[in-house]
Specification:
single chain, 284 residues, alpha/beta, Rossmann fold, 2 domains, four-stranded parallel sheet, 14 helices, 7 strands
Length: 284
């Protein structure tokens, strides 16, 4: 299976662990990721707050490259996914896009990584690659607010209760916990402008994850991972609440289950300790 791949800026910087684990998982599953040639920033998260038309052009430039290739486009970053989907719909509707002289067909699908691995690759193929069950691990799966909403942009099947990452984790043997906060906002986009409010949003997610019986949180968004991973010490300084909840990318746990030796290296790049729990569960 071949698919075009748009890593976006985060996966070549702060979320390089997501990128490395995703590429390793794709290789194991027989997915040929063809990185979009000469891709550029899609303008997330601030471009659309400054100029709607130019923000479409930033994302649209990458869509034109994908359009010429003609393969489905897999996008791991939730924010990039949102902007590319928005631009795709704008360009298909015939809206004038500044600076882009191109007749856009858009005869390809834009797929977020979790949906791609579960729906396009499939649970049967994933199950065949499992070498080590995640039995004993008790995660909640956290999608954040950009991969599913608004539905008219994302085309999400179930925007309030997405299931792709849950199903992947269950296929790997994890004891996935049900909870009602999987699409609540973590405040990632306001952490610099309203840090107090963002920390309150993060604290709610931690409290509800523990209330559900989780020992870790599994994510598919680099901004969510960074926000949940790095704010735990700040919350401790603020109100002395200790969480120490590992925040794993779903691809890291897939790699771990597939026997990929690089999975531990990726987890060690996190701010919140994540290796100890995996060792306690006999997974490392």
């Amino acid at each position: 299976m071949k698919v075009s791949y748009y890593p976006g800026c985060s996966l070549e910087g702060t979320a390089i662990d997501y990128n490395e684990s995703l590429i390793a998982v794709a290789k194991t599953l027989g997915v040929d990721l063809e990185e979009l040639p000469d891709w550029s920033c899609c303008g997330s998260s601030s471009a659309h707050a400054l100029n709607d038309k130019l923000s479409v052009s930033l994302a649209g430039r990458n869509l034109i490259i994908a359009d010429k290739i003609g393969q489905d486009l897999m996008v791991p970053c939730a924010s990039c996914f949102q902007r590319l989907k928005f631009a795709d719909k704008a360009m298909k509707s015939g809206d004038q896009v500044e600076g882009l002289n191109y007749t856009y067909a858009g005869n390809f699908n834009i797929r977020h990584s979790g949906d791609f691995f579960w729906e396009d690759v499939g649970g049967k193929i994933i199950a065949k690659k499992v070498k080590k069950s995640l039995e004993g691990l008790n995660p909640v799966c956290y999608y954040g607010c950009l991969t599913t909403r608004p539905r008219k942009i994302t085309d999400a099947k179930n925007p309030e209760d997405p299931q792709s990452v849950d199903e992947i984790m269950k296929t790997l043997g994890a004891n996935v916990k049900n909870w009602s906060y999987k699409t609540d906002c973590c405040g990632g986009n306001i952490m610099l402008t309203h840090p107090d409010l963002a920390r309150r949003l993060v604290k709610i997610i931690f409290d509800k994850a523990l209330e559900a019986g989780a020992d870790c949180i599994v994510v598919s968004c680099p901004l969510c991972q960074s926000n949940l991973d790095t704010r735990q010490k700040e919350i401790f300084k603020e109100d002395k609440t200790t969480y120490d909840i590992p925040i794993y990318y779903f691809t890291e746990l897939m790699g771990l289950s597939f026997g990929d030796q690089s999975a531990e290296t990726c987890v060690r790049k996190h701010f919140t300790e994540g290796v100890l729990l995996l060792k306690q569960k006999g997974l490392l």
